[in-house]
Every structure is written in structure tokens, then in C-alpha cells.
Design goal:
Blueprint lengths: L2 H4 L8 H13 L2 E2 H8 L3 H13 L3 E8 L2 E8 L1 H18 L5
Antiparallel strand pairs: 1-3, 2-3
Length: about 100
């Protein structure tokens, strides 16, 4: 069971960042404000987490107009999508009693 903590790096396998990855995997592109609301997070805390995901290649960000304001939106990179799929397969293996 020690693989649970060693197979995925600390960037990916941190509670808030894993929550961000889950939301992005499920819903695609999401705004910073939406993530902040859903995760009940402060600006500073969330910013630190999403920027770590961007820096390490799991997520990407872009600016877009939302009415008369600019907002930052995030989505998974191909690497982030694959890592999340690997994580789901890993969990499925555990649930089904495999020994990965």
C-alpha cells in the first residue's frame, strides 16, 4: 500500500491540488473564481495551489473576458489528463483487489 504515497508526486497528490485536478478533469475549463467558490478557499491559498499545478505541467491557464472583466481560467494539460487517468486506474485496481 506504500505505493499510494510514492506513485504520484507531491504536486499531484496533495488534497487541494487533487481536488482542483478532479474538478478540471470532470468539467474541463474552470475560472479561478469558480474554483475558489467550490473549494471554499482564499485567493492566496488557491493561487498557490493552481500555480504549482501550472508550473509542474499538470494544468494550464489563460485569460479571457467575462463581461467587462478579465478572468483567469484553468484546464488540464495532456500530462495532467493522463496523470489523472492513471490515478483513477490505480484507485480502480485497489477497489477491485488488484495488486499493482
Amino acid at each position: 500500500m506504500s505505493q499510494l504515497y510514492t506513485r504520484f508526486d507531491g504536486t499531484f497528490f496533495e488534497k487541494t491540488r487533487l481536488s482542483v485536478m478532479t474538478l478540471l478533469f470532470q468539467q474541463g475549463e474552470l475560472s479561478f473564481n469558480y474554483l475558489k467558490q467550490v473549494l471554499n478557499s482564499s485567493d492566496g491559498a488557491l493561487y498557490t495551489h493552481v500555480e504549482k499545478l501550472v508550473k509542474d505541467g499538470y494544468a494550464q491557464k489563460r485569460k479571457q473576458l467575462a463581461g467587462d472583466q478579465v478572468q483567469t481560467v484553468y484546464s488540464l494539460t495532456p500530462r495532467g489528463t493522463q496523470e489523472y487517468r492513471d490515478y483513477l486506474a490505480f484507485l480502480e485496481n485497489i477497489v477491485l483487489g488488484g495488486n499493482q
